[in-house]
Amino acid sequence: MHKKCNKCDTIKPLSSFRQCRLYRGMEQGEYTRSECRSCEKRLAKQLAQAKIDAPPKTKKCCCCFSESDHLVLDHDHETGKFRGWLCRNCNQGIGKLGDNLQGVTKAVKYLICRG
Length: 115
Fold this sequence. Notes:
Layout: E1 2-4, E2 11-13, E3 19-24, E4 27-32, H1 37-53, E5 72-75, E6 82-86, H2 88-96, H3 101-114
Antiparallel strand pairs: 1-2, 3-4, 5-6
């Protein structure tokens, strides 16, 4: 059985993807990662380097400027470059919009047209 990696777009054997356990409330199960082991390793290195390059954590989100003690590191998924410290909502929102300017621009256009 084979699967396509969502990062490198390569079709690889299922054994090239890590199996993970899912714990959600009382539900338990397993799922296969969407990126292959090679891409997962490359992304982990990128994130580790972004953490090294990052300035000290601030108290305010670099996006919405709300104060939080639980900011997360935001980085460019293409280059691995540190972008800022974000609150969970901003980090997830940007990620769900595609983690790029095009996705955020589409959302802004939508809000302008529907507002």
